[in-house]
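> call design_seq(struct)
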């Protein structure tokens, strides 16, 4: 579909007329000089897995009426794009559990100025949805997979599903997605066994593996010792494939450091949030499924934008609130200091 085609659902009339753009031309720059161009949008807090590092086993999910509607997400994103956001990533919970997701992708794809729409998924529902998402204009896909062992998958996700994820990866490739990334959370007790099989699997299938050091944002107790670090991952990979070469940063705000395997056959990345924090280059803001704007994954404060979207608030005021949130962003997450305070929400309710 072309970017100018009409969306599949009616967009709300703008209370102040069609007055965009409301940007001030300077972009979303915080007090540390970081320009914000990336918005992560959670479309649901529901999930069909229960990964131990992400969410508790028992959860009361939000009622559908509490979630932002697609119209509200599109309106908010349109204002954010007018302020300089050009990339979004849809996430959750499990985003593919939100009914009609390709319709949302199609409407977002029609927003002029938005250059890139990504999605992070656990892959379970990709066999049914990969083609429709691709046709709707989804540009990039990250699929989460921590292990190729069915028993450890069940231990980590508290559910079965490995074969569905593998089928999801195949479906994504058949639908024409390229440069698919595989996200693997790096946890001591698992990564020692899973790092190399995942690396071999991804190299054989031309998938880009990205290890993510486990962060203190789940329901389970966390400590630094539970993180299988970037240095330990590199030691394993280098031992198997020869010394990896780091790739010069194409995008300094990208959280992953990229490497070429020692034998030159393919690339992988490591998001070392704990042992090599990258807050200094952060360019991200987040919108939760029920419409709270967060300027950091670990933010303790958030701004309610759902009430603004449901209150006929003019775009200028929504833009002001976004600018204010970015302005108020702190320097970094402080996980490595005694000052660190864990946010009340766990990862599934923020959007990773
Ligand atoms: N359900 C989807 C999925 O699993 O891909 C999207 C949401 S999930 C919260 C997004 C990403 O966050 C996944 O790659 C997941 O592995 C990662 N994640 C969740 N909890 C994490 C934690 N405590 N530390 C690091 N990454 C985490
Ligand atoms: Fe669900 Fe993704 Fe969290 Fe796992 S990481 S519980 S798949 S939201």
């Amino acid at each position: 579909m072309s970017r100018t085609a009409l969306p599949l659902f009616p967009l709300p009339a703008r209370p102040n007329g069609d007055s965009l753009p409301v940007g001030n031309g300077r972009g979303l720059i915080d007090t540390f000089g970081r320009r914000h161009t990336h918005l992560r949008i959670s479309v649901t807090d529901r999930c069909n897995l229960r990964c131990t590092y992400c969410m508790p086993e028992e959860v009361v999910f939000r009622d559908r009426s509490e979630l932002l509607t697609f119209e509200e997400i599109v309106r908010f994103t349109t204002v954010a794009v007018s302020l300089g956001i050009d990339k979004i990533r849809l996430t959750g919970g499990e985003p593919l559990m939100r009914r009609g997701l390709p319709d949302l992708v199609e409407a977002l794809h029609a927003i002029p100025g938005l250059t890139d729409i990504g999605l992070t998924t656990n892959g379970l529902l990709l066999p049914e949805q990969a083609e429709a998402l691709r046709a709707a204009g989804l540009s990039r896909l990250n699929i989460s997979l921590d292990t190729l062992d069915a028993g450890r998958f069940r231990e980590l996700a508290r559910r079965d599903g490995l074969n569905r994820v593998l089928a999801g990866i195949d479906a994504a490739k058949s639908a024409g997605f390229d440069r698919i990334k595989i996200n693997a959370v790096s946890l001591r007790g698992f990564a020692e066994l899973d790092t190399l099989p995942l690396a071999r699997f991804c190299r054989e299938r031309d998938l880009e593996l990205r290890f993510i050091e486990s962060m203190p944002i789940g329901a389970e107790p966390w400590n630094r010792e539970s993180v299988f670090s970037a240095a330990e991952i590199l030691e394993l990979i280098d031992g198997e494939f020869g010394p990896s070469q780091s790739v010069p940063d194409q995008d300094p705000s990208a959280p992953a450091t990229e490497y070429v395997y020692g034998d030159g056959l393919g690339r992988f990345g490591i998001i070392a949030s704990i042992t090599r924090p990258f807050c200094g280059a952060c360019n991200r803001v987040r919108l939760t499924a029920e419409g709270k704007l967060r300027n950091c994954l670990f933010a303790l404060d958030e701004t309610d934008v759902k009430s603004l979207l449901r209150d006929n608030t003019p775009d200028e005021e929504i833009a002001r609130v976004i600018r204010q949130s970015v302005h108020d962003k702190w320097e970094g997450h402080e996980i490595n200091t005694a000052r660190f305070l864990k946010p009340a929400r766990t990862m599934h309710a923020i959007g990773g």
